[in-house]
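so the lab meeting is tmrw and i was supposed to have these ready like two days ago... anyway. pasting both below. for each one the top line is the aa sequence and the line under it is the structure tokens. i havent really looked at them closely yet so no promises
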Amino acid sequence: MTLDRRQFGLGAAATGAVMAATGRVRAQSAAPLKIRISWIVVPASLAPMLIEKKDVLKNYGKSYVIDAIRFQGTPDIISGLASGDIDVGGLAFSAIGIAIDNAKMEDLRVIGEEVQDGVGDYQSNEFMVLKDSPIRTVADLKGKVLATNVMGSAVDVAMRSMLRQNKLEAPRDYTIVETSFPTMKAMLAEKKVDLISAVPPFSHDPGLRQIARTLFTQRDAFGTTQLTAWVARTGFLRKNRAVMVDLMEDVIRGIRWYEDPANHKEAVDILSRLMKQPPERFDWAFTKRDQFRDPNGLPNIEALQKNLQKQKEVGFLKNDIDIKKYADLSIVQEAARRLK
């Protein structure tokens, strides 16, 4: 299940005077709380990027440290949350719905965001065909083979929703095959599939851009998508609320640092190091060519509600979910107030 694990740093807890002033309960002599946070790919996933900028994080090593645990996909993250192997999970909206509706994790709470898709003129996930393909409209996908990363994923739900708007349904009108994002370019180039799902950083691959064009985007299908958000279980949040406020305060600091144009070169260098690819491959990151991040770490609950409804419409949820019942924004809101 786990592909990569990185743990960094320890330090003393905050002084008694500060703890008293802020209501923190960890003893001065206690070790910082290790918070196990999932990630899949940067820059969409926050955890490994936060670790790379510990000098920006004021509470890191004092009240908490991060154990960033890499997963192949969100189903394993749901399992990790269910088993208690991770504390905070970065889940796509589709996985949040599955965790609540299918896995019956009634104690799951949305606590912060990672990225939104389709906000204003920011980047949106793309669904691409070959440049010389005769496919010019969504209706032309009838009888074709479409590639998705995982059945029921966020991009899969968006793709199916777009085709449904054009009166096309799987498997009656088209075929869907699963393949990983890194292999989609080759699948398209070899004409094994007619359409692929392209998300950052893969959508910015110059080689893909040479052979493919965008047929539609996730924005076209969905409008705004709360693409991924941080979730945790209520027991962990109750036990560690004060430390979680410290963490979310640093998350906001980290988001603002990465989004600051003055830090762009260093931010790109960090991505280059994490992804083991040349920095010029990431010039788009943390610009309008990237997906949107709320500067206060707030998830778009209204968009998330609409996304879950679309998920139900295409058959991946059985029941309606009132996502407000499964959101606890008090922690990130308190953290944001500290930085005003």
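ok protien two:
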Amino acid sequence: MTPVVPKSRWLLHLVFWILFNLVYLLLILQVMPPEQAAIRMAYASVLSLTLAYINWFYLIPRLFYEKKYISYFLITILIIFCFSWIRVWIEDQTMNILPQMQQLPAIRYAFILFSFLIIWILSSLFRLLEDFLVSQRNEATLKTGKLETELKLLKAQINPHFLFNTLNNIYSLVYLQSDQAAPMLLKLSGILRYMLYEADTTRVPITREIEYLKDAVDLHLLNPADHDKVKIDIVNEAPDLMIEPLLFINFLENSFKHGSLAMPDGYIHLCLTVKSDLVDFSLENSRIPGESNEMNKGIGLNNIRQRLQLLYPGRHVLDLQTTEHSFNIRMILKI
């Protein structure tokens, strides 16, 4: 339900009172001539409006919301009886009351009291409903702001981890005076530009995230012997697809950290399939038998779980499987 906004509130009030008075006029035209019906509708409308907005602007916010319920109901009853007496007095002074109504004053007073009671109930319901919708809108706004703040904090925890590992690798190249040092610095520059400027938005093109992953892989492959142990299969059928940035990097970082590429049979296999409504990411790496299962722990994977819950509630699958010789990750996002 769309909350009532201040700009449209008074228009809704105006429409309500026009319809209310129109129905009231049609009813009293059945028992009295048009001239008297118009006079009766005029003073009845003034009294009804006064009662409604005393309740709206004063009684509910000053008494009901302050939990002064006894005072609220006593004052409301007193006002309704006073307004009923005023209306009876005006009718006696300005109109010819129907003979049957003069003979049954109790019914006449009950009818007038009932009409003011209806006005009080409607004004109370509408005020409480409007305040409820406004509070829901404010709560949603606060929740959205909280989610954005949480996402920024979670992404901020990702970047230093990746940067720390990459600087260590480039330091090794510089120390060994490798010709790869300059190209790797250039790739690092591009990665930092991506993380600081492009990834600081809500979504990025999937093609940029893929380029980022490829550059990250290159920064980790210092040893030429490791190239054949790392396999990347990427099928991108939706290059214009927008996705939240930095969703895959933690998995990749962990695979290089725990992938045991130094072993003769060590390996890392990354597979990414992108379709118009689906992103299927899987990553498998070798592990040393008997090694503690640290890949299921740590800040990085916890961050990914939190981000997926915030960004894709009910629209994601994250499956982590550990065997004696391998660690497997499967993440599916329904866009």
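from a quick look at the 2nd one: The two ends are 25 Å apart (CA to CA). Residues 194 and 212 are 8 Å apart (CA to CA). will dig more after coffe
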